[in-house]
Amino acid sequence: MSPFKLYENIFIETNLLSSDYDGVILILYPRDMNVALPRHVSSFIDKIFILDKSIYKTPSVWNCDYVSGGRLVLSPVGNVTPYHDVTVVREAAKRGMLRAMEAGMTKPLLIVENVVHYPDGQLVCILGALESLYIPIQIREIKPQKQVYRIGLHAEEKATESFEKIVRNAIALERARIVARDIAGGDPERMAPGRIADYVVKVFAEDPCISIKIIDNDDIIAQKYPLLAAVSRAANNVERHKARVVLLEYNSSNPVRVTETIMLVGKGVTYDTGGADIKISGKMAGMSRDKCGAAAVAGFLKACSILKPPHLKVIGVMCLCRNSIGSDSYVSDELLTSSSGKLVRVTNTDAEGRLAMADSLYMLANMAEKELNPHLYTIATLTGHARACYGNYTAAMDNHSAKGTNHSSKLQFSGSRLGEGFEISTVRAEDLAVNDGKCSGDDLVQYDTDAKYRNHQLAAGFLIRVAGLEDKNIKYTHLDIAGAAGCPPEKPTATPVLSLCHLHKVLL
Which of 51, 303, 455, 507 is 20 to 30 A from 414, comparing alpha carbons? Predict the structure, then answer.
């Protein structure tokens, strides 16, 4: 069978000896897992294992007459225990693709095995390989380069039809993650609020399923998003740093089939100096990644734009601002009135993320009452506490309504299938109560400076309270991705785009 072109330079290839490629990449699993190898390669692996036992430990390149290009890259997953998950596949695929490029390959053919241990292992394998090819947006723009000219994905001929669906999903998800990585990883100037808005308009150009509204008028932002406006105040004297609110909406081409409405608010602080409570001791470096939540919102909408799930309506809000330092900085002790009418006392200007999202969450909470089966999300690199508790995993927190459906557990399961890790935190009564105002007449404190524990949970409690969600029967989940989003020099992870797509059945 001839190769099947799926997207630009990506092909499904059933012939391991095709002349269209200059090398083959094989993910090597431990021998005791009994993962079937292509018949041309199996005996070759047995022979070289006698020569070098390290092939199961370290990526290596071998001269092999049984594969395209005469070169075989072996990329081992390493030791696999019951505590490992599908991320071992993703990382092996990334290492394999990088090793192939180091060897000079520009047209690699990746063997994508079906491994019983990992139901979505083929999808994760392809995503890992594609992820390794990502070039940051500014590098692409400043010094354009192309590392790979053709990519082949090998499947046995009998499995081509089902494999095609997997590959199409992988391409769509990677295109969505590129959008998220571009926004998240762009420096504070390349992805200043206005330039993010311009980028988003370009990304969704001429897609009839996506509508975009950009709010950039200072007066409107001050009126409808007063807490966001306060955070942005010191940045307003620089035109390119002014706040923007980007509203995105995906509508099914067949509205009668819609069964669920997903409503997302993403923190998009393009640079976080800490404001008047300035970050010190080198803690400011990397704060251009404080926009990863908004980036994930755009990425999820991009996946919907490509895959067009008929059963979903999606509304996304990107809350874009810069927490700058200056004579007009908002400061601790200020009393701010949110769009919900609640009076919020500022206590630490470095806790700006919850303020940036609060008014948009309140807006969506009101809209949700008129939507079909709504579920609200906030996605944010919100607290160092989440990272301190869970490392490089997302902290997922449900309100009472979402907890009633075990939503975070379902999200955790979807994450485990696609290699995005979640830990579940419970929002308790004290996490709401700790946000009560301390001064006479105050409704809420931005952050209780006396709180020594449960900082990521109390942030969720603040958002629930400020949006008026404590008494509403609306499902809401807060995702703190501070540990999972990726810190420089690592590339942004684009989490939780994959898990949201899996859970809400965006995939083909």
Answer: 455
CA distance 494 to 278: 27
> 163, exposed or middle or buried, with CB in 10 Å at 0-12, 13-18, 19+?
buried
Q: How many CB atoms lie within 10 A of CB 360?
A: 27
Three-state DSSP at 76 gives strand
Closest CA to 269 of 291, 289, 286: 291
Give one DSSP letter per residue of 420-477, joined into a string. --EEEEE--HHHHHTTB--STT--EES--TT--S-HHHHHHHHHHHHTT-SSS--EEE
Average pLDDT for 456-476: 97
Give the CA dihedral 191, 195, 199, 200, nearest 10 degrees.
Answer: 100
Which SS3 state, helix, strand or coil, does residue 374 take?
Answer: strand
**Residue of 71, 107, 354, 465 marked active site:** 354
Q: Residue 4 — pLDDT band, cuts 50, 70, 90?
A: low
Residues contacting 154, CB < 8 A, separation 6+? 12, 13, 14, 16, 24, 38, 109, 110, 111, 112
Q: From residue 485, how far is each of 249, 381, 490, 496 by CA, in Å?
A: 24, 7, 10, 8
- 279-309 tens-digit pLDDT: 999 899 999 999 999 999 999 999 999 999 9
| 504 in Cβ contact with 262 (< 8 Å) | yes
Helix spans in 75-187 (H): 87-102, 121-131, 137-142, 160-185
Q: Is 354 a catalytic residue?
A: yes
Give the helix/strand (H/E) hosting 244. Answer: strand 244-250
Distances (CA, A) of 18 to 12, 101, 157, 462: 12, 19, 14, 59
Cβ contacts of 144-151, under 8 Å, gap ≥ 24: 147/101, 147/106, 148/9, 148/101, 148/105, 148/106, 148/107, 148/108, 149/9, 149/106, 149/107, 150/9, 150/11, 150/20, 150/21, 150/106, 150/107, 151/9, 151/10, 151/11, 151/107, 151/108, 151/109, 151/110
Please, what is the average pLDDT of the chain? 95
Q: Are 254 and 310 in contact (CB under 8 A)?
A: yes
Residue 455: C-alpha distances to residues 150, 395, 397 (Å):
48, 12, 12
Residue 438 is among the residues annotated as catalytic for this protein: no
60 token code pair: 């290596």
For the chain, percent of residues with pLDDT exceeding 70: 98
Are 86 and 419 contacting, i.e. CB atoms less than 8 angstroms apart?
A: yes
Decide: helix, strand or coil at residue 315: strand
Residue 176 contacts residue 133 (beta carbons within 8 Å): no
Residue 11 phi, psi dihedral angles, 5° rounding: -130, 150
| Catalytically annotated residue among 175, 195, 224, 279 | 279
Confidence of residue 6 (pLDDT cuts 50, 70, 90): low
What would the pLDDT profile of 263-277 be if each residue is shown by its tens digit? 999 999 999 999 999
3-state secondary structure of 312: strand
Q: What is the CA radius of gyration of the chain?
A: 24
